[in-house]
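Fold this complex.
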Amino acid sequence: MSNPENSTFYLQSQKGRITIANSNSGEFNLPEIEPLLLDDEVLPRAPSSPSFRVLGVNMRIVDNKKVHNTGRYKNTNLIVRRNKEFIIDIRFDRPFNIMEDTVEVEFLIGSSPDVNRGTYITVSFGKDKGDMIWRCRVLNTNGNEVTVGITPDTGCIVGRFRTFVAIVRGLAKQRTPKNPDTDVYVLFNPWDSADQVYMSKESDRQEYVLNDVGVIFNGEINNMSSRPWNYGQFEKGVLDACLLVLDSGKVPLVYRGNVTEVVRQGSALMNSQDDDGVLVGNWSGDYAIGTSPTAWTGSPEILLKYAREDAVPVCFAQCWVYAGVMNTFLRCLGIPARVITNYNSAHDNNGNLKTDIMLDEDGKVNRSRTRDSVWNYHCWNEVYMKRTDLPQKFSGWQVVDSTPQETSDGLYRCGPTSVTAIKEGELSYPFDGKFVFAELNSDVVYHQIDKYGKTKILHVDTTYVGKRVVTKLINSNQYEDVTSTYKYPEGSKSDKQAMQMAESRGVPSREYDDPGEAGVDIQLQANTIKVGEDFKLTMHINNQTSKRCTINATITGSVVFYTGVTSTTVKQETRQATVEAWKTENLLIDVRATEYMAHLVEQSNLLFVVNGRIQETGVTLTRMRVVTLRPPELTILVSGSPQVGKDFTVIVEFRNLFNFALEDVQLRLDSPGLIQTKFKSYKQILPGGVLQYTESITPLNPGKRVLIAGLDCARLRQVTNQLEIDILAV
Amino acid sequence: MSNPENSTFYLQSQKGRITIANSNSGEFNLPEIEPLLLDDEVLPRAPSSPSFRVLGVNMRIVDNKKVHNTGRYKNTNLIVRRNKEFIIDIRFDRPFNIMEDTVEVEFLIGSSPDVNRGTYITVSFGKDKGDMIWRCRVLNTNGNEVTVGITPDTGCIVGRFRTFVAIVRGLAKQRTPKNPDTDVYVLFNPWDSADQVYMSKESDRQEYVLNDVGVIFNGEINNMSSRPWNYGQFEKGVLDACLLVLDSGKVPLVYRGNVTEVVRQGSALMNSQDDDGVLVGNWSGDYAIGTSPTAWTGSPEILLKYAREDAVPVCFAQCWVYAGVMNTFLRCLGIPARVITNYNSAHDNNGNLKTDIMLDEDGKVNRSRTRDSVWNYHCWNEVYMKRTDLPQKFSGWQVVDSTPQETSDGLYRCGPTSVTAIKEGELSYPFDGKFVFAELNSDVVYHQIDKYGKTKILHVDTTYVGKRVVTKLINSNQYEDVTSTYKYPEGSKSDKQAMQMAESRGVPSREYDDPGEAGVDIQLQANTIKVGEDFKLTMHINNQTSKRCTINATITGSVVFYTGVTSTTVKQETRQATVEAWKTENLLIDVRATEYMAHLVEQSNLLFVVNGRIQETGVTLTRMRVVTLRPPELTILVSGSPQVGKDFTVIVEFRNLFNFALEDVQLRLDSPGLIQTKFKSYKQILPGGVLQYTESITPLNPGKRVLIAGLDCARLRQVTNQLEIDILAV
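Structure:
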């Protein structure tokens, strides 16, 4: 009679329960000789006839990678995609006899490989073929060598498999010894129509799976800007780092063939909350113990640091860093992905689809009572996939957001949620439709607090949030406007139907006693302004009534984080204007650099709120406007025309035009496929001083490359530039 | 210009971000005198006319509790239900003038009360009424006293609110000081048709909300048994313990008015995985460092221990303990709930809806290759609620499962998921429909492993799992069969449609090459057997063919946990039988107590697997059967007829009929509404020895009560009994 302790797999601590595997790595391997009799009394012994042995296995790495679209991965192992055949050669010590011999090729993943879990795959050929999940066929026999085609199944786990070849004879199996060189990575397959991530257009796949560089849009809606980002999914070590992310997040292996699960878990694992995820979020302005979120130029530096330091979270990130690294993670595993920017993005703390801005009687934002905020932009990812768990129409692009804003069902993560479902207001379906819907559709409600602490609604802006949603255009650094994939036109019949659907799915209905503002409107306007410049803010008053109106307006300017949280108030001015019937009037407000420079926080945003009272009617108007100040320029120059095998020089130049010194300045130069991230720090750049950094590069491969440079210090964040170069063949 | 550090609410560590409140307790309170001018330069000062003051507040606790169905809570504070008026009296130092005076009643919850979050509620009456979320009306004025009716809104947060009364005059508010006696608990309201938990029938509410005792079904489907359970939701300290569960789980206050959220979070917080939840699961058989799961008689002992020890998880639980404590948590907060038992319940590790049982060639379960298990029963809860987040038809009973089986979306929890959705195969909707569907609908697939390690399917049993789902009947300790609420009849057209729907929602389709077994069937049968008895197992062979058949059968008996994980093999016997055409035959297999007694694990289950080969056809038949051995009896006796104010005696008696001593025996006596759990331990009960425990009780209130007794020790688990008594009035 057997005893539970005899079993290798048996769970020690919880005898009555069973556990599951959640790590790709793990040292479970198979014996080189395995006896087949199950009777305990027969001891392992060598096979009776020792003449048939495996001498070698050729994984045909270069050829296979080419047809599997994995040739760009800087990784010496074979990398294939699901449901596509790869070809290997097996060499024996005598000719293979298809009628007599049975050969098995085994693929193992994790530390407790299990046939019923897809973690122990066996394919066989020859006499005694068993049932197979992966397909296998003999393509050719040539002397002692057999060429075999093997096709992983379309739902196969994605990760690194260990390969063994076993000969089955008599009472034993004889296996090749463990050999990491024959390990094979299996990835998702956007080229295969049966795969959950299938994309039909090659141009889409080139951009969303194979492009390793891009731009991420930021700034604010009236003054959009962008920064380059090195996704670098093919860089050396990045694929292993992505698998490490799944391992350190203990994502069960059985889930790793399901894109929905990989994406959702990935979203949780990009941030360090709840788990040892990749990046530590920090919005404090103090980044001394790490790298400031604005200083990074791409994902490989972050992922490789994470891997090098055994999954210790990397400091620090804000939304575009999360979205950038997530994009790398997804593309690296073969999941089509892109980075999205939403101008303006609500962060709805309690799911009521209202962003409440509380103003004091003097028009200033009351910071202690304002608990919601509107981010002037927010970045997330979209992934393209079939949602096998949902009705068919919800397949296609899905939102996934790795920035830890709110816990989603207990953990910091968000999505995947169908873009179509958001547009239709179909918010019952997993995951996190309501949160994303709120990011795009919240109303901004301005309240005034009176001296008794009582509040009244001043104004409701139903169009401020989710005004424009963009992503990088294919083959271009310009933006593609994808707003219409998320929303019907404001006020259209379909828009109203979508809102009704959302309400029937638990979104609170929004009705306000919005005080009428009939006929008079205010807008705040500003041109593009550079950090350090004096500028004029225009208050544009449009009187569309038949009566003259007199407005008393208080304009308050605050420094503001890109998350909409206000910091120091830098400007407060009261102005009066009289506007004749059917006329417009512009008031100019002077803002001096000396007023704001000392108080700026990262990304250099100013928030202006105007609170105007029309004397004749007693109606109060409230508007806000974020002004993003442009950082100074960083120049990238290349000397000569780059060519394979020849040195060329890159010069990055920056001139400090401020009247103060910049201290502890970080400079990065990055170029996926060309160099690893170069980093240099400078103690000080004096006023008027020029920084010049020179790098000599010898390209190994021809083709287009992008040089990305970034400069960052406490007083000046997010100074970036990029330059496309074409490396000529020899 | 202001400075961020001046603000009380301002988040220190993450300047650019905002946090949310997640604790009911918390010491934020309001000043007794609050100046109303916002101008910083006016200092706080006493109100100008000091003649109008609040002298006292009468919460009318007894009367209010009666009409709010909260009179049974052993708690000295007011407890009300949402959207139902409660009445309080406020006494001033002079008559209240409705045309002149303004009075506010404020209700605060948590440490950062916020008007926009529902954590700072103000109602007012008199001259200057503001907008109100809770309703308020003056019912009567009588001299210096005003009687006010206050109605919490229907979506109100559930928890303990602090009450203040403030007089608003001139430039200040004057408040009553903090007084815990006026704290008021707000609960969900199943009596109110607007509430998310509304139940229309009073008999349902009496059972599912107000019944504080019940039975939980266990055993196995052919031999169902039950154990009594003290839910004790009204016991002293239990309501506070339930709120502590939410606090220690950091459930944001804003979610605590949403039943779906409270239920889901509650399911995560019953178990200690991921968080400091209430109960530590243990299926190891070794419970020395805590209380064995079988030893508990009810929830109050567990919840009060958890509260007393500052939210340190309590050791130990298995499924019925989780379901029992969860039931208390839900009923206590006003959520209709019941405990469900599913015979047999699949634990599907990888969501493929197959439970793979791997048999060796000799018919024994191969423990190392069998990674799935079928629990012979499994308990979960159902809660009754409107699912505002889903299409209407999915409201009603919802499954919620607190036993940590699999992580649901990253945490150990499960549900709520609509019973209707399970039945219809509508598995896209949150939460965890697929997992629950698998518990009820998995197929059991028997594989045989040959000596090469290759497997073949022997038999597929599509009916073994989810055969019967039961709960306690209203007003009875018998069971109600609710299987038809979860499943259409096996094989019916609707059943097929539900399976198709499930497959279109991502459940893998199940097709097998099931070897035909045409015409011959085996069943294993056993009568009710007591632990320690010898018994006979009947192998019933039914030959429904026109030919004689000869069967060679191997019967293997193992000790098994109720989770389906097998332990020691205690029996293995090979038998042959010949059955004539159209006849049946019974083979009897003797099982002796000496064979199994030394190996029994808790709950005394034996698993018999028969593996028979029909000589004439080569067809193999496999069946399994769990045999639950009944524990010996525990007797509860009462002397005399219990009456209010008079002593009576309860005697609990147990006789050790085994031929071995029972050691470290725990005895519990419990009776909600009558006594707190009494606990006694005995070093040893010798063979033939009798344990007699006597307790003298003086009832304070008349009515029906249930006495629950339980005895537990390592060699004998789950010996329980109950007795209903009627306490006469004086």
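The longest strand of chain B covers residues 566-579.
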